[in-house]
Design goal:
It contains nine helices and 24 strands. With 576 residues, the protein is mainly beta. Keywords: Signal.
Length: 576
């Protein structure tokens, strides 16, 4: 694999034109702040925010170059937004910092440092800054305690995460990032059920059982796992050429969910190439994934089988407030080696896939985003796996091979004229067997986990989100999820789990969303956070989750109340 990636690196470098930089962590608050600014200005500013994680340099420069200066000084909440980004990202371009006179609290000369060497700037524990080199090191901590009531029984839950992160650059051309986090946790019961089904912790993968004084016995014990991610990025030509090689996650989309590529599954090895020309941003991702595996392979420390992903996305800012994109992804296996023909960075692989015998799983998609009236954003995605137009028109036919997914959503910022009151509604659906393949060698999964939506397929979902910032450092978020999906009873395959090959499908026709064990899922979450100092947050959470299935044995009710403290890490919601 390493030789194939090297070949891809060399070949693609010769023909790609893109920019590289350090990227912001996925789920980081700065993605949300940037999204607000795009809507408020009605101007993308040549940033293609559909491709995440965003580059740190893009986020910071967008604030200074696109957003009007008087916007930031209107009130303390807007000033706080500006300061957060500038303080967090003052390491880009080594010594370049904002020249705006209203920027506060950077103290670059270290006049408020701790013991002279620590926190010479507010965001970083330790920093090294020279003419040709920059690096910073920060701790990562996340402690959380919760009380769960599950089907009438109560127990204590905990989350204990510790780690460290380092990032920097050399000559403003070579960028690097790495973090390592160790976790011990007792998750809610519904998360445990998903972990047992997939033999993997959602978003983390491999785990060991962990016994704690807070978990009485192995039946309710927690999990212990280690995660690490990092990358090296190279500027081959300033503002035009950039390549990133690393181990981590990517997200393609403008919504709460992604039907193309999300951050639900665990980290994977990837080579990413970005191409920026005029109003276009073209991204290639070549990744090594893990095929489906069983409990025996984990129990005996056997090597897990590999498969590969080649994904391309072409983003085009037609107008300063209108964007469309084309997506193509192909998952395949070649006896532990990459298919050389898929190193071609040009989009539309279908002809190549047919030329090699059509053995692989190809999906294509279209996405759009329209920001209008400086208050609203209308966005969506359409993904196509297989489709028979004749059977689609005959709605009663329900051919199993009509495999597609749809997302559409609307965002409303500063709703009803109230500053920092933001609302979002989103609809998602995927027909049965979407993302599945005839066997496990090429389904749209990684480490037994979906690469796109956490519900897999055979579902319809509606999400509503209200986010309000009553004070500069305080944030309140309320979210409602309602979905209908079909579960598989023992030994059946009704098309909800993409890890199961479609050759074992139950029927050719009459396939409809929700087939199998029809289940209604309702989730309500309320999350409060307060930033004590830069990137140090106190959190409180309430969740009510109800599963109502046709089979009463699958009914579940969860009530969760928790408080926590996190430092230099975002809260990743398990809202499924």
């Amino acid at each position: 694999m390493k030789y194939i990636l090297l070949v891809g690196f060399i070949l693609s470098s010769l023909i790609s034109l893109a920019q590289s930089s350090l990227t912001a962590p996925l789920n980081d608050v700065n993605h949300y702040l940037h999204d607000r600014m795009e809507i408020k200005t009605g101007d993308f500013g040549n940033v293609h925010s559909v491709l995440k994680p965003l580059m740190r340099k893009d986020i910071r420069q967008y604030q200074d170059r696109v957003v009007a200066k008087d916007y930031w000084t209107t009130n303390n909440r807007r000033q706080s937004d500006y300061d957060y980004v500038q303080i967090d990202y003052n390491d880009d371009d080594s010594t370049i910092q904002s020249k705006q006179p209203f920027l506060k609290a950077l103290y670059p000369n270290g006049d408020k440092s701790f013991l002279r060497h620590f926190y010479r700037t507010p965001a970083h524990l330790l920093e090294v800054r020279t003419k040709n080199f920059y690096a910073n090191i920060n701790p990562i901590l996340h402690f959380k305690g919760s009380l769960e009531q599950y089907n009438g029984s109560s127990r204590l839950l905990f989350l204990n995460r510790r780690g460290a992160a380092i990032r920097g650059n050399i000559l403003n051309r070579v960028y690097f990032y790495s973090d390592v986090i160790e976790t011990q946790a007792a998750f809610p019961t519904y998360v445990e059920h998903r972990t047992q089904r997939d033999f993997a912790v959602p978003g983390a993968g491999f785990f060991k059982q962990y016994d704690s004084n807070l978990t009485p016995g192995k039946d309710t014990s927690g999990v212990d796992y280690l995660t690490a991610q990092g990358y090296v990025a190279v500027d081959l030509l300033k503002k035009h050429i950039g390549i990133q090689f690393g181990h981590g996650q990517n997200f393609i989309g403008d919504g709460h969910r992604s039907l193309f590529l999300s951050d639900y599954s665990t980290n994977y090895l990837y080579l990413k190439i970005n191409t920026r020309v005029w109003k276009f941003h073209y991204q290639n991702i070549f990744a090594e994934l893990t095929q489906n595996y069983g409990q025996a392979q984990r129990a005996f420390d056997l090597a897990l089988p590999k498969k590969y992903l080649a994904a391309h996305h072409l983003s085009f800012n037609i107008l300063k407030n209108l964007n469309i994109g084309l997506f193509e992804g192909i998952v395949f296996s070649r006896n532990e080696q990459f298919e050389l023909q898929y190193l071609n960075p040009i989009i539309f692989y279908r002809a190549v896939e047919q030329a090699v015998g059509s053995p692989d799983n190809v999906v294509i998609g279209l996405n759009w985003k329209w920001n209008f009236l400086k208050r609203f954003s209308f966005y969506g995605q359409f993904l196509l796996d297989e489709l028979s137009v004749g059977d689609l028109i005959d709605l009663g036919g329900g051919w199993w091979g009509n495999k597609f997914a749809l997302q559409t959503g609307l965002k409303y910022v500063d709703a009803f004229g109230l500053d920092h009151l933001d609302m979002q509604v989103e609809f998602n659906m995927a027909r049965p067997y979407t993302y599945s393949f005839r066997d496990s060698t090429a389904n749209y999964t990684h480490y037994n986990q979906p690469l796109a939506h956490p519900l897999g397929s055979n579902f319809v979902e509606l999400i509503g989100i209200v986010n309000y910032q009553p004070l500069p450092r305080m944030n309140i978020r309320a979210q409602i999820n309602y979905s209908i999906y079909g579960q598989d009873s023992s030994g059946s395959n009704w098309g909800s789990n993409p890890s199961i090959g479609y050759n074992s499908r139950e029927q050719e026709l009459n396939n409809q969303i929700g087939q199998g064990v029809k289940t209604n899922l309702f989730i309500f979450q309320l999350h409060w956070s307060y930033q004590i100092r830069h990137n140090l947050f106190a959190d409180a959470q309430f969740m009510y989750r109800r599963e109502d299935a046709v089979l009463d044995a699958l009914d579940n009710n969860t009530i969760l109340v928790g408080v926590g403290l996190r430092w230099n890490i975002s809260e990743k919601m398990k809202d499924w």
